[in-house]
């Protein structure tokens, strides 16, 4: 007969006691229950162990044990958690068969029945703590995600601000760029031969334009014979202009009969100055071109736009005077007075730039420049032959095409 003290058993919560008549000296049967839980993911596992001890005179004479296991999703434990403290011994069969094939001795029982981590009350607490931890974890994750999103938004906004600042700063620098007067003067003096007075007048007008910042247009009228450098000068100004997209070049009458002044100033930019070149004009075009530029000037002043307008007159309809050596020279003074008067009638000021006829030494310089540029070796006699090939009164026009004809 087993004779062990109750203290040898790791008991939990007493759930029932069968009192028997002590006169019959029958043992008292006491039932105890212990529970332990474990959870992982969305499942919770619970194990209830019922220990039935036969006690006589506070000594354990015999014992039995029963085990009931649960494994359910965490979402369905609400009702179980609320009722867990209510004794439910009736759920345990009165007659449970002992585990087959296993005879437990007292030492084995003590090992298997070591104190469990949770009682019934702790199970409810563990479930509550698990749910609380899960909620806190979700809250923490949501807070961290919110912080990351907020930081990302700050980064995007900062990047946009920085990029915008850099773009506007770059645009500002581009808009502040002007025509390099030093470079332009050097280019004209080294390539436009025999026109020192014209180059001086052009540079004077452009310097005055860039030294003021008033909206509106400045008008230059180039007049001269064929091959004296009018178009060549406009090509240098156009190439050296700070912004290529601000340059417009037209042949008069305008390429399309439907093209109007609004089509011209619609392409004007508020970023820096604009350049408009109108080529192949004659004196009889002065009235139409003056009215055309009057509209452009009004628009420029109203919208705060600045523009340089260069008018290139061909001199085809000019009067000529006979020089003492028999050379016929066009008289541009009459043309200048007529054009200036027409522009004054529409309140426009025009700077008239006259390109004088080229002398022999000027043409020789043109030929030498073409020889150097094409890398051709010509003797002095060859250069004289090139001079002979050029039509009288054409200046430097056609020099580049005649030089290769005499190359060896």
TrEMBL record:
GO terms for molecular function: ATP binding; ATP hydrolysis activity. Keywords: Membrane, Transmembrane, Transmembrane helix. Coiled coil: none annotated. The chain crosses the membrane at residues 147-169. It comes from the Eukaryota. GO terms for cellular component: cytoplasm; endomembrane system. The keyword ATP-binding does not apply. The keyword Cytoplasm does not apply. InterPro entries: P-loop_NTPase, Torsin. Belongs to the ClpA/ClpB family. Torsin subfamily. This is Uncharacterized protein.
